[in-house]
């Protein structure tokens, strides 16, 4: 194992905080430590801070990826006590207090005095990981761009097929699995694309005949929003032309479609090329590592049971925040991660200043909302239940506040005007690589690492090449000298010419 980058015994070193993740928890935790007498190292597997709530807008061509994923390095450039490192954390050693990360075969080991783990959650296919090949989830920029390629690509393939007289129903059918906020937003936006944005762009297909189906095993849309808002969202979706299929468990997914089973035992298949998985989350697998070493409990979704002060049992120096935690049924939402990481940062700062511990972490619920389409949303703020344009305007204002960076806010506002007031989509560019690179990379044994040389391997190969080339040149020079000295050079040449 490589030596830690911050050996603990260095004299005069400041308290070292390592933050895992650059999402809501990681970024807000790091920023909250800006005035503390600490050095913060944020290590994350992407170079950007991702605003996940707007991923669906990247997937449906409203926003560009840059607008919702600014570089973390740029955001933190003014914070002198913070540095950003790229790397996927593969191990946390609670005993040695080190974090090990890798990127393209390069290993980094960081020593910490305090650790904030904010590695979030991934998609869960409920034990059917093979569904992922045909039904991408929506957790990353790669996912959103792949989905954009698949959605717009399906219309293109349908146009081609229709020109040949083929049946293109399976290409013009879009199935979204999961009727939570993300599924509702995706289904609503695909319906808007088909019925409004693309309606004049094709010659052989009528995009308005596209079928958009939203499937969920639960008996209602948006379960956490309660029956009333769920019913409202369902009827708004239906007005947009979305078919809502409830009480249906998806049992199989393949290249050409999905199979679902109803409570009464009925099995139905929908032929569709474009499937989107917006059901189920699984906490980051680092949770398991932390639980195994600390004895903390893990729930079914892989979330770590933390103490009321967000620390890992037996490890007051380790805080776990956001989507990775299981505490008092806290939901997997951005505010839980933001408030949790600020709490952790305050505790670290307080300890260094000799302050008494804070009272247990208390989440302040600022409300939830889901957008259905332009001018239609549902919101829940305390006891208030808001629907329609008012909820949509609230959504607009809130997202403008939380998008990181002035630049992104201005461009997002312009793009929303283009899409919501007009019918355009500014970001319709798609490429073949966007759609197929994920499966291609998955076929490599070690992913992208297979495409680059191992650290040192390139230099070693170059050195070997240079040594053998040097030897070859030296031998050639010696032969030239020998020929010249022995007077054979002219004779040889002469022999060849004749
Ligand atoms: C499509 C979608 C829509 C959503 N909509 C809403 C919404 O409208 N409102 C709302 O409140 N919430 C919403 N959420 C949930 C919200 O985004 C999350 O609750 C929030 O992002 C959790 O923050 P986090 O810091 O715990 O994790 P994340 O924000 O997911 O950040 C995790 C970070 O860890 C990094 N990481 C992961 N594994 C490793 C590793 N091994 N090594 C290094 N780095 C790693 C990731 O790259 C990322 O930077 C949505 C989520 C999704 C996916």
UniProtKB/TrEMBL annotation:
Keywords: Cell inner membrane, Cell membrane, FAD, Flavoprotein, Membrane, NAD, Oxidoreductase, Transmembrane, Transmembrane helix. GO terms for cellular component: plasma membrane. The keyword Membrane applies. It holds the Pfam family Pyr_redox_2. Transmembrane segments: none annotated. Its cofactor is FAD. Its main location: membrane. GO terms for molecular function: NADH dehydrogenase (quinone) (non-electrogenic) activity. The keyword Cell division does not apply. It catalyses: a quinone + NADH + H(+) = a quinol + NAD(+); a menaquinone + NADH + H(+) = a menaquinol + NAD(+). Its EC number is 1.6.5.9. It is found in: Cell inner membrane. It is a single-pass membrane protein. It is an enzyme of class 1 (oxidoreductase). Residues 16-339 form the FAD/NAD(P)-binding domain. Belongs to the NADH dehydrogenase family. This is NADH:ubiquinone reductase (non-electrogenic). It comes from Nocardioides lianchengensis. The lineage of its organism: Bacteria, Bacillati, Actinomycetota, Actinomycetes, Propionibacteriales.
